[in-house]
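Handout, page 2. Input:
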Amino acid sequence: MKIPIYLIGLLAVCLNIVSCQENKEPESETNTEVTQRAKFEPAEGKCILFVGQELEAIGGLEEYNDGYLDHFPAPGGFTMYTMIRPGDEQFGFTYSGLSGIFSTDDWGDSPSNMSMQLADPDFKHLALAIGLEMVNHEGEIARGEQDSLVLVLGEWLKSLGQRPIFLRIGYEFSGAWNHYNREDYIAAFRRIKTMYDSIGVNNVAYVWQSHGWEEPMDLLESWYPGDEYVDWCGYSFFARGDEANMIEFARKRGKPVFIAEASPTIGSETIRTNGKTIETILGNPEQGEEAWEKWFTPFFKTIHDNADVVKAVSYINCHWKSHPMWFENPTFQDVDARLQTNEEISKRWLEETSSDRYLKASPELFNRLWGRENPSL
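Output:
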């Protein structure tokens, strides 16, 4: 496979950067409550609030200025995506290298550009969650055939210094739409983690995320890369989020949980056969009220009832129905989840997320996630 020249150049530069002091992992406090936490796991009863999942949804930029950051206090982190699937085509876009990191790319889900966000002062104190897609290429990654791209990503992650990164390798691994090969998926997950350990990437927590429903415990067990490779367990909370077994699985494994994708979707009578949800436009007062009752309330209850393990959540503040990727998708084709379009929903959201349970952007946030803080906070 031919690697784009700009990626080869970037890799060469990154491999010659020596920044030991910048990237040295801070020493955690000796208090046992801190040392027993997983990578970047907050203290008991705390939950990192993330928002995603593209430039328009998140906002906070000169060109993209009607997103979450333009209407609400900055969350503790933001969620974006990239992929290792060179040559694949989707919605008129051809994947080449690591899309959405170094340039503005749109693969059908609105423009993405992590470097643009990371360079903006509004994102200075936000952690970053990255969904790393490897559909159709997990076998190549497992066999080492995509090591060049894996290393470019690793050196870039390393260059971010003390910013906590949550890397969701092959997110929603159990979703039929991803059609991952189980053995190759596990091998690819392990290879990426092992390679990053070997080059000194220490600002990354590795998240193993399922799609979240119709997943018996034995299925989850069969896809699990192993305790030594997984820092956090994750799953998606959509119309059938209350059917997930991941919280129970994580609790047994002693891992924190990241509800890594969450957006208001309400199942229709046929959702179990075709995935169809009812129209949910938050800007519509009646539909917004129904969404609060049938999705937001169960979502927050899940966080409250499982405070011992649910330590991070990411809300997708997306105008789903306006993006080509979702035009034919039965779950998202009739959904507009932008909180700012409904004054009452916004008010209730702020009431909930203003609680000190939720960790949001602050100059102290990174220290707290690294464990350099009073464990009682």
